[in-house]
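FORM 7B: Structural annotation worksheet

SECTION A. Query
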Amino acid sequence: MNESMLAAVLRQAPDLRDRLCYLAYGGSRSYGTETNESDVDLRGIAFAPVEAVFGLETYEQTILDVPDTVVYALTKYLKLAVKGNPTILEMLHVEPAHVLYADERGEELRAHRDLFLSKRLYRSYGGYAIGSIRKLARKGEPYDAKDAHHLIRLLQMGRELLETGALQVHRPRASELAAIKRGEWPLADVLACAETLFAEMTAAYERSPLPDEVDRDAVQALAIRLNQSYYCRLA
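SECTION B. Predicted structure
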């Protein structure tokens, strides 16, 4: 499966063949909540072509429809990761079995994935949660079960991250999330669970082992090292 997914991406975007450094499953497969009807989501990182780095072209990402794939330019990925985008951060924290491809630079990125974790992520997870709770409460029954299960998942992940300092993408209680996604929970139970998780996440923030901010100097050094390693070999 891994090889066929990678082959499908490279067949549609052959220009990625020498630039791709990382590709992994995203979405429900990375969370462990997929069903037979679930789409395949792939997320990756690639070096920009030399024409975009040293010439007049631009490159930020490659997007494919089937499988649903987004491959980010390394520089764009790092900037989004520093800002604390949860979806971006998850890419490097998936289970090893969910990594489809990683060259030595992709492996180095995974080895340094904790550089992007800080207490600022409370705002990333919390901001999404507050908006989603209000939206669900305002609309009432019937509610959007897919949105509800994403809300509970993100709150669980945010609480765990702030408590332990580790980002666990694959969910240990995936069956619970699947039940919410199927609409089996009453809205009142979803909202009560969300409010409890939000309170626990807020309490975890106060005692979190995570640093207050991302070490931008360390990320800068990583970016320079990776780019030099890739582009110098092309000279």
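SECTION C. Observations
The mean pLDDT is 95. The CA atoms of residues 117 and 132 lie 23 Å apart.

SECTION D. Sign-off
Analyst initials: ____
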